[in-house]
Every structure is written in C-alpha cells, then in structure tokens.
Amino acid sequence: MKSTLLSHIDSPTDLRKLDLSQLPQLAKELREFIIDIVSVKEGHLGASLGVVELTIALHYVFDTPNDLLVWDVGHQAYGHKILTERRKKFNTNRQLGGISGFPRRSESVYDTFGVGHSSTSISAALGMAIASQLKGENKHHIAVIGDASIVSGMAFEGLNHAGVTDANLLIILNDNAIGIDPSVGALKNYLTAVKEGKNPKQNNIIKSLNIDYSGPIDGHDIDGLIKELERLKKVKGPKFLHIVTTKGKGLQQAEDDQVKYHAPGKFDAATGEIHKKSEENLPPKFQDVFGLTLVELAKDNPKIIGITPAMPSGSSMKFMMEAFPKRAIDVGIAEQHAVTLSAGMATQGMVVFCNIYSTFLQRAYDQVIHDVALQNLPVIFCLDRAGLVGEDGATHHGVFDLAYLRCIPNMLIYAPKDEAELQNILYTASLGLKNPIAIRYPRGRGKNVDWKFPADFQKIEIGKSKKLKKGKNVAILSTGTIADNVTQALNGIEDEGHFAHYHFGFVKPLDEKKLHKICDKFSTIITVEDGVTTGGFGSAVLEFAAKNDYVNEIFLCGVPDYFIEHGTVDELQQFCNIDVDGLRSLFSGLLEEEEQDED
Known about the structure:
Elements: H1 12-15, H2 23-41, H3 46-50, H4 52-61, E1 68-71, H5 78-86, H6 121-135, E2 141-146, H7 153-162, E3 169-175, H8 186-195, H9 205-208, E4 212-218, H10 222-232, E5 239-244, H11 252-256, H12 286-300, E6 304-308, H13 318-323, E7 328-330, H14 335-347, E8 351-357, H15 358-361, H16 365-373, E9 380-386, H17 401-406, E10 412-414, H18 419-430, E11 437-442, E12 466-469, E13 474-478, H19 483-491, E14 499-503, E15 506-508, H20 512-521, E16 524-532, H21 537-547, E17 553-559, H22 569-575, H23 580-598
Parallel strand pairs: 1-2, 2-3, 3-5, 4-5, 6-7, 6-8, 8-9, 9-11, 10-11, 13-14, 13-16, 16-17
Antiparallel strand pairs: 10-15, 12-14
Helix pairs in contact: 4-10, 6-7, 12-18, 14-16, 19-23
GO molecular function: 1-deoxy-D-xylulose-5-phosphate synthase activity
Family: Belongs to the transketolase family. DXPS subfamily.
InterPro entries: Dxylulose-5-P_synthase, THDP-binding, Transketo_C/PFOR_II, Transketolase-like_Pyr-bd, Transketolase_BS, Transketolase_C
C-alpha cells in the first residue's frame, strides 16, 4: 500500500501537524493499513474499522497522552495503537512476544487503562477525572464505549456516579447496534428510536442523569466530529456524545456481515473474501458439540432453557435460539444478570444451561456464590473457552475457573476429556442434579473425527474417575482435554508399564476412593491441568494427601502463578510445559531417575 501521510506519523504530535483537509486521506490510509495487516495476521477487524475517524479526531483534538483516553473492551483500538508509536510493530499484534491486541498500560503511555472485558471505561475514566481534580490538574478524560457494552450494570453504575460529580469527563457512545453479535434489549431499542428521531428530546435518559448530552452525530464525518469535540472541550462537568458508526466501515463484506468480520481470520485484503478452510474430516468444535447437544436434549425436555450473555454465536447457543427461540435468551453483556436470571428460573423447576465464557464468569462471582450455590440451585454452568485461549491473551484465558469455583460449597465441577464426555455430562445434568454444576471445555476442536450426532447418551456417575492406562510406578492424574497431551506424551516413551494415567473429570467432588488407592500404590504422582496450579486440580490432590497423612512425591503441572500473555495455544502450552513435548520430557526425566536409582 502506498502511503503518503500515515508513514510519516509516529505519534499524535505528528498527527496534529496535519491540516484538517488532510485527515480524510489519513483515514483512508489507516483503514487500508489495518486491513492489510489483519488480513494476514488475523485479529479484531470490524470494530477498529468502524472508529477510524473517531480515533483520528480524538488524538487530533485532545492532547494525548496528557489528556487521558480510555477505550472500552479494546477491540476497536487498532487505529489508536498505530497512531501512538506502534505502527512499525503493528504486524506483531497478538503474536507471541508482540504487542497486545488490547490497550495495555505497560505497553504504552497512551494506553491509560488495561482492558479486555467490557463496560469498564466509564468507571475508570471517572476515577481518573476525580483524581485529576484532587491533584489540581487540568486534564480531559475521555471514555469510548459501545452500545452493546453500555447496557452492562457496571457502565450504569459509572453513569449514575458521574451525574452527581463535576468531573471533567467525556463519555462517547459508539453506537453501531452490534457488539460481537447484534445488540439486544430495551436500551438498544431506545437508542434506535433516538437515532431515528422518534424519541422526544425531553425523554432523554442521559440528561435525566444530569449529564450533558449531544448527538447523535455521524461518526464517519471527521470534520463534524472535530468541531463537536472542540466544542465539548469547553463544556464543564460530565458530558456524553452519541455518535453513530458502521462496524466494518470501508470493507464492504465487513459492513454486510458484521458478525463474521468481527474477527474473520485470514482474508484477501483486496477483495475482502475470507480464506476458506476445509472442514472435511475435521473433529467438531466443542462449542458446536454443546450447542447441538443442547438442542437435542431440549426436544425431549420442555423445561430446558438456554441463557447466554451476548455470546450466542461464540457459544453456539444460536442453534437453540433458532430451534426454540422462546427458550433461549441472549441477555446482552450482563453476566451478573445472566447468573441470577438462571437462578430465578431454577427455583421454578426449569433446567437452566447458563453458557458463559470461563473468563467472563469471573464477572459474576458473587452471583454464583450468593444466588446459586448458597441456595443450592441446580444451575448448569457451561464454561466455554476454558484453559489457555491463545491470541486474546491474559484478559481472556480461562485458567482460573477450577481455582475460583472449587472453593464454593455445593458446586460440582466437571472437565470432559473429549466430545463424547461433553455430550454425556450435558445429558446427565439435564436429567436433574441436586447441586449446581460447572462444566468447563476449551476453545477449538476436539479430536474425534467420527463424532456421533445425535449421540448415544450415557449417564455419567457423579464423582468418579477413569483409569486410561495401567502402570506400576508413577501415577499421572489429569483433568479435562489436557488428557490427550498426556496420552500423546506417554505414547512416545518406552516405559514398560511404568506410568499409569487417570482421568479425573470431576474436580469436585474428587474421587477420594480412587485417590486412596493411588496414594497407597504409587510413591510419585503427577497432576496435569490447563488451569492455574495455585488452587486448582493439583492443589486439590495435595490437600487430599495432606489431610490423609500421605507423603507421596507430588508434582503439579499447569499454568504457573503469573499472567500468561498472548500467543497460539500451542506456544502457550509449551511455555507452561504442558504441551506434548514438555510433558514427555518430564516423564522421561522421571523414568531416567528411577532407572538410575535401581542401578
């Protein structure tokens, strides 16, 4: 791509040297730059294309980084990164050792707040604004939030507080009627009415909260944006600017299919066509196993309900929504509401499958404890994207769930080792449980090419483990799909029956009867999990051993006690030494030690 303006811009200082008339050309070049790199390197495309003009206008009008700019979620921050000293290394975006796909404080002074989960921007920017007041600083504080994110409870909490302050805060609503999936709910309908001019001015939610409101204005009119931002710089107190944008702006396919082009994978930068990947003879995605199984179960059980907070496509709840639209509910970005809504339904005898990404359930932790577990309501939590998820990095890895759920009374926790076990635990839960259960499974595909659907369902006995391989000296205990790494690692070792391998699908309750036998028979035990070892499955085994006065040598393999960055799942498993080669090296080393001891 030939660039005449963007190639000379390394920082917002360079940007502000341009004439206003040059900015539309810069916007064109910035879009092309994003498209060229994301088409090859992958990433979040549509959101960043939709805010190109806004990004330029913000850095042109405000004195960043002295003025503090907070992006909500961060999917839309690629243009921001490129204009703030990271253009030359943007091709490393989301790759191991490269820049993060989200704003990150340690990466740049222009990234004023680390983000990844939604709806934090208003609270963070308000906190900055109040701090600036207390320090006597004259700064502007800007929060950019989408219409899908602003429905979240935390965003409303921030608005509620902002309205009773005189903080120098500007909230910009980027209204494109879509998050990852289309926005839902009454507020979405309200904003649509505002955009269409059907809502009377006196019935304005934002003004009612004592926040100065302006808009809606065209978010792709760079001249109009700059004029309005310059005006708002002079307005005291909290302000709210409503702009209307098109997600995927500038790439026709991304505008036409905004869900698919949120993060489309590799595509042709010139045509926009996504490079097709053959799905012949491939095992199914775990999310599809969940979605299709749920539909199959719902056919025979009218009490089954599906709930998801804004992830119908990502979780494959879309299949249930298509088959039984009244029994599948997308509540929007509202994880706390999703959990307590599920609890309310469970009190009335409904069989509720609440599907939330593992990392997002963290946002509803009190509701899991207080509204579900304390009342022992049998809500079925289906935790998609458990374990290391790859390029989205530290904010999205589902590595904490075993640790944060294991300590909750009444909670059952199950991690299937493959697609068949996922189907069977969903079936088992649908028959009725006396406790809530969390079922965790990873992003990506399983291993069984001959996956059978509809399934020949088999009920799983609660709290029972499985022996996968006989052995006489060392016991390897794994939970979840990481069992496949263990199996592959063992297949590459001539151990003559040295290693036994057990699959503990239930992390809670543990199969203590089997653990007693294991601890009595094997002097060395290795636990393997794709979650944090601090408080996770391995910790549970250590606790059992300590409580029962066992003195076995126990090694814990899993995610170490620090935040894991972005990279492919294979790269990150290798970093944590839970990939096939890392485990094989560990097992081989133990085998050599034992042989030397025998000599």
